[in-house]
Amino acid sequence: MTSTYRAWTLVRRAKGLPGSDLFELRDFDDAPLAEGEVRVRNDWLTVGPAMRVRMSAQTRGYLAPYGLGDPIPGWAVGEVIASRSADFAPGARVLHQFGMRDYGQGPATAFEKLPSSGAPEHYLNAMGSTGFVAYYGLFEIAKAKAGETLFVSAAAGAVGSTAVQIGKAIGLTVIGSAGGSAKGERLKEIGADAVIDYKTPGSLEEKLAAVAPQGIDIYLDNVGGEHLDAALANANPNARFAISGMIGSYNQERASDMMHHLNRIVTQRIHVQGYLPYSDRADLLGGFRERMSAWIANGTVRPWQEVRDGLESVPQAIQDLFTGGFSGKPLIRLNTEGARP
Ligand SMILES: NC(=O)c1ccc[n+]([C@@H]2O[C@H](COP(=O)([O-])OP(=O)(O)OC[C@H]3O[C@@H](n4cnc5c(N)ncnc54)[C@H](OP(=O)(O)O)[C@@H]3O)[C@@H](O)[C@H]2O)c1
After folding, report:
1. Where would one find the signal peptide in this protein (predicted)?
2. pLDDT per residue rounded down to tens, the chain (341 residues)
């Protein structure tokens, strides 16, 4: 018997901010469940900035562009509703990448079993690739040490808010950048020692210098452009820059940022490294998850998330990533039965 599912598709390539006109919600048929496959009802979806890169025809070395008219993939957690795999019984909670749709189906190897208790949506946030990026950037790239000063851009976002909390837990002085005073206040509540509002008039370089007269030792870059330039201008000798992403340029055909302080990489002996830990170092996920679940259990890390309801909310959620419309990790709840706020 075939089953149907509803999935978001990209119907035209993005130029600039990804508007709702790029997407259509369409019905698809799944093939009958084959030996070794499972079928899942999705309960939680999420969206992330890298989706924007895949909406362009050219992704410049990143994952392939989305196929026009195809179901858009994405992270999701759900519950197995049918299984032809000995590894998954109906009712099991799973993490997978058949997101942006209400039901997903695929080989058992594409699904990861989650604990049956606790908040499964954390696996789309602090316990998932988001948290892993923050953790890996601080420990594996920056080799952070207590007493150092960390600067985090997009600090009120998913990766950023997790990095702020880990940074405080390990004894760093943490400075976060975010747009707007409400996000700044919340950042202080989760432990930031100082915040800068990049949306108010004035030079970012000077704003950072004012709150970090001691200079910065670590920069976790989520934004690029002027943020990266300001971090270079304020970097201490032997600073480490963990470059997670550059959301500030994802809506531009070509990044047009004017950098003034690149030479500081030489004069300050700065170590600059981009990283994609989920694809490159999945072997470290187990150790990361153990540590993160302890931090969440003892309140050291409080996953920051904003929940919206319904599959229909996906296009607006994608757009809001780029306009500051979300704080923390965007989560889309598909099934409200027994749901937490
Ligand atoms: N390397 C990896 O494996 C990996 C994995 C996941 C994510 N990432 C990268 O990590 C970064 C953060 O991703 P995320 O999932 O945590 O998203 P996110 O930070 O939760 O969402 C985007 C945030 O970025 C800020 N922002 C948007 N446009 C901006 C701009 N032009 N200038 C400054 N801030 C801007 C917004 O906050 P404000 O309201 O403060 O503007 C928004 O809340 C992205 O660059 C993403 O590509 C990398």
Report:
1. none
2. 568 999 999 999 999 999 999 999 999 999 899 999 999 999 999 999 999 999 999 887 788 999 999 999 999 999 999 999 999 999 999 999 999 999 999 999 999 999 999 999 999 999 999 999 999 999 999 999 999 999 999 999 999 999 999 999 999 999 999 999 999 999 999 999 999 999 999 999 999 999 999 999 999 999 999 999 999 999 999 999 999 999 999 998 877 778 999 999 999 999 999 999 999 999 999 999 999 999 999 999 999 999 999 999 999 999 999 999 999 999 999 976 544 43
Question: Is residue 215 one of the residues assigned to a domain?
Answer: yes
- Both tokens of 19, joined, read 């508007």
Q: How far is CA 62 from CA 8, 14, 50, 52, 245, in A?
A: 21, 16, 9, 11, 12
Which among 218, 220, 223 is positioned nearest to 235, based on CA atoms? 218
Pocket test for ligand 1, best of 45, 159, 219, 320 (most atoms within 8 A of CB): 159
Computed from CA positions of residues 207, 211, 212, 213, in that sequence, does the dihedral angle turn out positive or negative? positive
**82 Cβ below 6 A of ligand 1:** no
Q: CB of 275 within 8 A of CB of 244? A: yes
| 30 and 156 both lie in a single domain | no
Q: Does residue 98 form part of some domain?
A: yes
**Residue 120, both tokens:** 């499964």
- All residues at 6 or more sequence positions from 243 whose CB lies less than 8 Å from its CB, including other chains: 221, 224, 228, 272, 273, 274, 275
Asked if the structure places residue 88 within a domain, the reply is yes
Domain around 211: 129-278
* Substitution site in 247, 272, 308, 320 for ligand 1 pocket (most atoms within 8 Å of beta carbon): 247
Q: Whose CA is nearest to atom 46 of ligand 1?
A: 245
Asked, for residue 338, whether it belongs to a domain, the answer is no
> What's the CA gap between 154 and 135, in Å, rounded?
16
